[in-house]
Design goal:
Layout lengths: L4 H18 L6 E6 L2 H7 L5 E7 L2 E2 L22 E6 L2 E7 L10 E7 L2 E6 L3 E3 L21 E3 L3 E4 L4 E5 L3
């Protein structure tokens, strides 16, 4: 069987499409239940129930450096990398005895933090060249300047909240 250029390109594209379709979905958080049954058995007290999710950071594509007129090096030289994750829902419930002062009114307290998206960006490095662009007044040679060095500020963007609740029996 003879493989033509057109056939090999079609085979390559088919393999790439199959690999892209078979890639697993990335989870933004993994649910976790905190086992406290041993504490309850050992101490003989009602323990809180804790359910949460462990965030799985997803690293994005680095931001491309930009070239400015008159600068020999791009800005920022060390690119900023975005990292996104989802802080999963967290629920802590605990028995609260004698809510109204009587044993019949035992209730349950809860603290809930709904899921929220969190975005972080790493700092980037800004470095200035110790030379200027070629200078026509200096026979085409660059001039010396004081080099610049700096960092861009890191960012953390999110809106975490918490809800406190108390439920008494009816």
């Amino acid at each position: 069987m003879k493989m033509t250029a057109r056939g090999s390109i079609a085979a390559l594209l088919t393999c790439m499409a199959a690999a892209g379709a078979a890639s697993p979905a990335v989870a933004s958080s993994v649910p976790v239940g905190v086992p406290l049954d041993a504490v309850e058995t050992t101490l003989g007290v009602d323990t809180p129930r804790v359910a949460t999710a462990v965030p799985v950071p997803v690293v994005g594509a680095p931001e491309a450096p930009r070239h400015h007129t008159g600068d020999m090096l791009p800005v920022p030289l060390l690119p900023v990398i975005p990292i996104g994750t989802e802080l999963g829902r967290t629920l802590v419930t605990s028995p609260v005895p004698n809510v109204m002062g009587e044993p019949e009114t035992d209730g349950e307290g809860s603290l809930e933090a709904p899921a929220t998206t969190l975005l972080a960006r790493t700092p980037g490095a800004v470095i200035g060249s110790p030379l200027t662009m070629p200078d026509g007044g200096n026979f085409g040679l660059p001039n010396l300047v004081t080099p610049k060095l700096g960092l861009t500020t890191p960012e953390l963007i999110g809106n975490p909240t918490a809800l406190l609740g108390l439920e008494a029996p009816r």
